[in-house]
Amino acid sequence: xxxxxxxxxxxxxxxxxxxxxxxxxxxxxxxxxxxxxxxxxxxxxxxxxxxxxxxxxxxxxxxxxxxxxxxxxxxxxxxxxxxxxxxxxxxxxxxxxxxxxxxxxxxxxxxxxxxxxxxxxxxxxxxxxxxxxxxxxxxxxxxxxxxxxxxxxxxxxxxxxxxxxxxxxxxxxxxxxxxxxxxxxxxxxxxxxxxxxxxxxxxxxxxxxxxxxxxxxxxxxxxxxxxxxxxxxxxxxxxxxxxxxxxxxxxxxxxxxxxxxxxxxxxxxxxxxxxxxxxxxxxxxxxxxxxxxxxxxxxxxxxxxxxxxxxxxxxxxxxxxxxxxxxxxxxxxxxxxxxxxxxxxxx
Length: 347
Ligand code: TXA
Ligand code: MG
Hints:
single chain, Rossmann fold, 2 domains, eleven-stranded mixed β-sheet, globular, binds threonylcarbamoyladenylate, binds magnesium ion
């Protein structure tokens, strides 16, 4: 299959892109679309045959459920059944963070096919705020199931080029909306009543942080994909290898513990690129890539993380050594990705 890429540089291009994307979605085909977090591989969420093509193109195991993107806030009530006891909190979260990078886990209605949720009774939903994604889903008028547009187990794509490297030849169309403005996948939460105030469990840390969420309830971080792991015992080991580049990557939490092998070429994935952080002077690095040059801003590091991981992966180094970033705000999500990419892999 030939994969077409449509750029969205002008108004005319955008109209063309939206028209072609919607036509393919209506025909039950796949389209890779830009979102503010990472690129998604979209299909009509209400059409099980279209959704099956996502699993095939990504080589994704069928026990790993997909995120459903909604055309509007009101569509939430059409695809989910919100329990009365969390209705208020869900409404507050939706009003505050949608459209945006917050995904909610809620009991699903029958319109959502089982293949989307891998047989679970809950569905993960969000509304993207990417302008091109919004135009496409508005015109399509139907929820779009879209996981990240990478092959299963690889790094999520933050550019159309990266999508094309992962899925070129397997899908008919990629809409190029430029680099993703967040660069990290959405925060996934599950809400329950809790003893005193609502409990907000974070299943995947992301751009919406603990600070953002704590006004709405007690925030706790739980193992990623806890819901899936409960229902699919084979999941944990396999999902632990997410986000991994092919080149071995190692998160070195303390520079004193790094003893280079003189026969190897190492690349350093540095946070700020500053000598005083202790990593730069450790070794004569074959390459140094910096997440947030200068002052060290975690939002910037988040935007650049996957982009630089892919770039370093293509450099032919023996190993990528990653510096930790501060464990606060979006730093928590960045550390989570680095730990999951790190070898030997943590379960
Ligand atoms: O930012 C994002 O969320 C991107 C963009 C494209 O929207 N999407 C994304 O989708 O990251 P994906 O499929 O790569 O990650 C979704 C995660 C998976 O780890 C899946 O296991 C989990 O959400 N998930 C989906 N439905 C679930 C459910 N019902 N219960 C528990 N986990 C679920
Ligand atoms: Mg993914």
